[in-house]
Amino acid sequence: MSESFDIREWFKNPKELLVISGPCSVESREQLLETAAGLSEIDKVKVLRGGIWKPRTRPDAFEGIGEEGLKWMREAKEQFGLLTMTEVAVPEHVELAMKYGIDVLWVGARTVVNPFSVQELANSLKGCDVPIFVKNPIAPDVKLWLGAIERLEGAGLKYIGAIHRGFSSYDETQYRNAPLWEIPIELLRLRRDVPIITDISHICGCRELLQEVAQTALDMGTLGFMIETHNDPEHALTDANQQITPESLKKAFGKLTFRKKKFDRDEVVLQKYRKEIDEIDDELLNLIAKRMNISEKIGNFKKEHKVAVLQMDRWKSILDDHINKGTNLGLNEESVKEIFEIIHKDSIDRQL
Ligand code: PEP
Ligand code: MN
At residue 198, what are phi and psi to the nearest 5 degrees? Predict the structure, then answer.
């Protein structure tokens, strides 16, 4: 049995990594207790998650065990000393979760997209002191995420966190839900006071990517993880591809590199700007390469038509034009001139 952990303290000062783990869906008493037993062997795990009502894409899939599962959650808590956490999507879920003493709630990605649903949930939570996490909406919209947090604040909830679980996209990516790190970073910039943890399971969608994404999340300054675990992942009724056993989770933790300075919000914001600069530099390089390719085509054309490589009038007029445009954009005249002289010289060399 792990020592009791004060999650409200964590919200006030989230310096210790918060690890939440447990099955995607609570399926049976044995499955939950066996999984919880494994998790209770891992010091870092403080909260046992379990989906009781499952938002499924198609109506014929397993939609959760319902109220009975809450009894097993309570039993797991008593037996292993883990806090318990489940997803609530409608007021009835809130009422039942409170009735069975669930310690922490989360609002799922599909609920967060709908302000009506979030408001109804918020109304039903008035007067509850329960800590709650808001997952990002499935669409990459930081305002919708923020709006859900604000609706819960409006209901008087004081312990509100955010869970980054990636974003749905039509493009094929290696992830089930593309991480789009810039969005949680933007949330962090807007709300320094809301702790953000990372649900690597729903970002990855498969076991193979978990380790790498967990490391990236840590490097980005995440304050915790939500990770789905199951005593028999291959036979899980939901999300079988992404769940791992508690033993594998323990091994995965062993392979993570924890940085000396685990958490510095200012540094995370700085990292966002650095990432943007890197992306712009990549674009610049690509554009320069593209420009050189076109120069070579022009060079070939000039050769075929026996035209001189250096066309002084044209060069003078484009340089004047660029300096003009550059200074209008607030750039230094001398720097624009030098940049284009270098580019032009390289173009000419390629045409010779
Ligand atoms: C879940 O955590 O099992 C879940 C349904 O998550 P999400 O809302 O992120 O899809
Ligand atoms: Mn799941």
Answer: -120, 125
Give the three-state DSSP class for 213: helix
The pLDDT tens digits of the residues spanning 307-332 come to 887 788 888 899 999 999 999 999 99
What letters, b where the CB count within 10 A reaches 16 and e where it falls short, cover 154-180? Answer: ebebebbbbbbbbbeeeeeeebbbbbb
CA distance 66 to 27: 10
C-alpha 133/C-alpha 185 separation (Å) is 17
Specify the residue with its C-alpha closest to ligand 1, atom 9: 109
Ligand 1 pocket, CB under 6 A:
24, 51, 55, 108-110, 135, 165, 199, 202
The span from the CA of 174 to the CA of 165, in Å, is 15
SS3 breakdown of the chain: % helix, strand, coil, rounded to 5?
50, 10, 35
Statement: the pTM of the whole predicted model exceeds 0.85 = no
CA of 106 to the centre of ligand 1 (A): 9
Q: What is the 3-state secondary structure of 309-332? A: CCCHHHHHHHHHHHHHHHHHCCCC
Identify the three-state secondary structure at position 220. Answer: coil
The whole-number average pLDDT for the span 181-202 is 95
